[in-house]
Protein: Probable D-serine dehydratase
Organism: Clostridium cadaveris
Amino acid sequence: MILNKSLNQWIKEYPLINNLINLKETIWINPKKIPCEEAIKNSPITIEDVIDASNRLERFAPYLALVFPETSAMNGIIESPLVEIPKMQAALRKEIGKDIKGKIMLKCDSHLPISGSIKARGGIYEVLKHAETIAIDSGMLNLQDNYEILAEERFKQLFSRYSVAVGSTGNLGLSIGIMSAKLGFKVYVHMSADARQWKKDMLRSKGVNVIEYDDDYSLAVTEGRKQAEKDPYCHFVDDENSKDLFLGYAVAALRLKKQLEEKNIVIDNEHPLFVYLPCGVGGGPGGVAFGLKLMFKEAAHCFFAEPTHSPCMTLGLATGYHDKISVQDFGIDNKTAADGLAVGRASSFVGKIIEPFISGSYTLTDEKMYHYLAMLTDEEGIKLEPSALAGMKGYENIAVTDEGKLYIENENIKDYMDSATHIVWATGGNMVPEEIMKEYYDKGKDI
Ligand SMILES: *Cc1c(COP(=O)(O)O)cnc(C)c1O
């Protein structure tokens, strides 16, 4: 029994669960999506919140440019390139066996400075906001100051009285760990069993306390939360419930809008934008999708992508039970090579906010991710970690399958697919050590 319902009852009510249990690649279209203006009006998070977050990141830019020289070329703004991938598009076209309408692009969060993954958005933002609050409360910082002063020893002294804790499958730990340690905080990163050894080693080399668990992400988060509750000077970055993380991710949409404009790519109802976002607990892809809906309204069509072994957001959204159920409740093992997506229970905070906005979600196998990994390396010379390839199946799912075609018809955009832009959100990879990347690549070639 799961929440007082037998498995048969669950499957009868939500037939999609049967596919998820059988680890079949699944496409789910969201019947709860409503007109965007209405969804925005009802949302507890607003455009003002996102702009506030964006302004905060601007205040910190001079500090970041100073302490992370790799960000100085962009004046301390942590942003990633949006690139065309024509050879990959041609290879996908060959594989799908159909013409690909519109243009496929790659959003290279894999190459975000400081921590090489989408977590450099939300994770770093939350730590900066926390530091700003402490510094202002102490009377040592004003909003008008040049934030370069935060690099001074007296601020490190101040922050060293506080600690930051987080539970993570790896990449969030990297972001929070690197940023917090740089500011002078004590840091505790609670790592799930999925976390790669090199991520733990790198954090320890920066003076971060890494606590390891034999269990999955949910336990690492629970233990981290417990530790932090005992200590009033400890801030817990709550990946399952944090509004600040969410806002840090949402700022990406403001930046993407500018990038598209700079490339003269029009997005409106006759030039639809499709975005495919790899999803773990939901904060990263949820925040980005939310921001994109604020920016582009009905013209943006956002889809989550998950491993067949960890379809927590698909399960949570399709049933509406969000974090009340986990994939393990249904006998799905949450074991995937896509460590950034190895989450068995979705965030209900994100699920409920994103429910009226999101177009749908789909699952794909680990083999498919490895395959795309090798293909993208061969075609474009771009190297990503397995999680970051989940979005690569989006085009095929939306433009070629029956579910996708029905979606396009219902949205009345069939005639505009030639002028569509498809963005595959490449969420991580730049920090993967070369020898491990080689293993990934070889695996992809073997498939
Ligand atoms: C964390 C992560 C995601 C998903 O973000 P969530 O906030 O967990 O949904 C996707 N890809 C990579 C590489 C990640 O590290």
